[in-house]
Design a protein that fits this description.
heterodimer; A: about 220 residues; mainly alpha; Serine Threonine Protein Phosphatase 5, Tetratricopeptide repeat; 2 domains; about 0% strand; B: about 700 residues; mainly beta; Immunoglobulin-like; Maltoporin, Chain A; five-stranded mixed β-sheet; about 55% strand; globular
Amino acid sequence: MFMKKFLLLLLSIAIASSVFSQSASFTATMQKYVAQLDTATNAATIQDMANKFERVALAESKEWLPNYYAALCYVWISFMQKDVTKIDALVDKADALIETAMKINSNESEIFLLKGMSAAARIMVDPMSRGMQYGTLAGSYYDKAIGLNADNPRAYLLKAQSTAYTPEQFGGGPLKAEPMLITALEKFEKDQPSTSILPHWGKDQADKLAAWIADMKKDVTD
Amino acid sequence: MSILQSIPVLFFLFISFFNSSAQTNISGTITDDQGVVVAFANVYIKDSYDGASSNAEGKYSFSTDVSGDALLLVSFLGYETKETPVKLESKPITVDVVIAPSSTTIRTVTINAGSFEASDEKKGVILRPLDIVTTAGANGDIYGAINTLPGTTQVGEDEGLFVRGGAAYETKTIVDGMVVDKPYFSGVPDVPSRGRFSPFNFKGTVFSTGGYSAEYGQALSSALILNTQDFTPATASSLSLMPLAVGGGHLQSWEKTSVGFFANYTNLWLFDWIFGPRIEWTKPYEGFGGSLYGRQKFGEYGLLKAQTDYSYSNVAVNYPDLNDSTQTQKFSMNNSNIYVNTSYKDVLSEKWSFFTGISYSQSVDDMDVSDIVIKQNDQLLQTKLKFTNTLNDDIKISFGGEGWKRDNVSLFDTLSGELQNLYGSGYAETDIYITDNLVTRVGGRFEYASVIDKFNLAPRVSLAYKTGKISQASIAYGQFFQTPENEFLFREESLDYEKATHYIVNYQVMNDEQTLRVEGYWKDYDQLITTPEDSFGNILSVNNTGYGYSRGLDIFWRDKKTFKNTDYWISYSYLDTKRLYRDYPTEATPPFAAAHNLSLVAKYWIAKIRTSVSATYSVTSGRTYYNPNNETFLGDKTPTIHQFNLSGSYIFQIKGNFSVLFFSVSNPLGIDNVYTVRYSDDGTRKEEVKSQFLRTIFVGLFISFNYGN
């Protein structure tokens, strides 16, 4: 009798482990990868992360997050890319992943924000020709991201960043960016994603921008 | 069941349990089809998370829990994803994979003979739309900028594009796939008019100097293909202020819809008063216009575009009467113009997409030439339908048709005429990649015009071959037909199409910063309209017995690299052309064809003061003109024409709004060019036709108001 129960238990473990392994390992894998991404700094590591997230994305057709993260990696790589002729191909790849993420979740603030970032990435290819068009497009997606979630700190950060690095003559500059950044920093304080795999990046970038703005202000007063 | 009996079952279960989670190690090297290792390729087992990126030596290694038959996938940006079947049996395996660049990456060869493309989106184009706006001397006019490209002859006294020995009527402007009947504002003789469309309206421009696609017809020489902006989810207002014109507009956008308007008013009175034209304007140019436009997205790919333009202008001028020095010729003109263009494009399936459009234009000219009243009312209604099928990676097919209804009413003093023409056309074309380095486009077009009751069939072929990493050679052949101009149809309807045959050879070397393009061509004209005259200048008949040829060489060099912050291009065209047409008694080089045309356009960006300056210098060798005292018809030539223009834009902000202060100086050196010479009928008096202003300075302010940023 005992043996029978034991066998049954063993059998159910065997079945359960194969059935549930996928979803249990989805969260575990994503937790591991997102943690790795949190500490990734160079383009090589981020490309490796992009591959990892894309593998998960291809295996999990109902999850937007792996697509989101893979796209985020490509956008970050394009920001780091010095050879501007390579940017469009990277952003095309990011846009395809964003599109997939959007089909799964059409009303996510973080995805619209990423769409804005991908538009902004294209400006560098030819700032003179593209600045107006893609700058406006990026801005409208950042606003859409805020519209969907007014507490998304990354949306304020991106607006602050793009304002800060826009020349004053074009309506930008550190002083103009400062209030947006303060809002971003406040929102980061309160930002408590319900799971550890939801987007939570940006705090360190916000701190860096704050330091840069403080520096610029010092220069002005000196 | 006893324990002993259960043991085999237990054993089997354990085996299978452990076996299922036993790992297989896979390793190998990723190379491309040239044997070069590929780093960062994504190597993984299909439908699992298991995989790795290849390292700097192209090597990868990972373990997987998957067992049995599986697919090993290798993917990387710019390469085709490769699937390799593998057997996973807990034993380490080595799988080396070769991946090939994707067709879009390696197929950089494009059909380009005869065409110059300006686009923000595409790679490998020669111009950006912004280049058109910032070319000195063009003053923001599309046609002015196009005239700095090879293949054109600059004709100072008339508007239009005179391409490779062709007259202005041989070039057609096409907006969103449909021909624009009146692309220029109505003007007065000897003063070139501007184009009706602002370069800001377009996301892409293709200027074809010959050999163009079977999709387009009714142009013997050239097609200027303009594609309007798609949907942009931006809400913005704009204002432009100039001493001679004011304009303003607003664009409101929602998620899938945008609606905008633009209105402007122009009055050249102040300009004329300051710069003192050499023409006696009795009523300086005055005009106003407005546009309404909208975009609506449907689903993922569907896009509806609609646009309506209206403009009105009036002007009056006195010319000296060459035949009677005591008289002046009075000329006045009112014009109103309506232009409507609506189109829709969408995909039908993964492989099929379609485009459909309808456009309508009406232009009413009301002229008074020394008390003779001339009225002209031209209407054109067009419909178009086009299908495109991407059969596979190698073959794309496109076909479609057009239907036009053209109505022209003309009144000359007491004479009046009416013309109606129903025109239908169909075309089919296919692009085939024979190899990755060799692409061909084969197509044909048939047309029928009711006014002359004739059919035509025009074959078109082009071929492009990639000769090196950044170079390609191409050839093109095509036949082109054009219905005779109205002035002849009013007189005689039993005419045939005018015809041109193009042969083009092109070689191009291009990287991101430098372009060299050399193109040779031969163009045969046939069936041109001739109007033989008797000795009193009366037209005896109108027929299709004209002919001619054009041959030449066009060279284009653009360089953004050599000089810091400087972008310049040089165009040179050599042209040899003769024709017998219109009232020509013999074959002759027409006045709109210069043997040598050289343009140098340079743009310099001064980052420190956020100012871009541009200079254009062009040389046009002498053009022929008619001198009744010379026995050789069109045997005289004007002196060489030198033109030099400057312009600049200063970018700044007004209360946080993007602003551009634009200035241009036309002819700062005061070169007094003679564009052409006219004689009195008896040949005793002559007049040199020159630019109406010697020098001008023009200043404008453009402000864009952005909201919500």
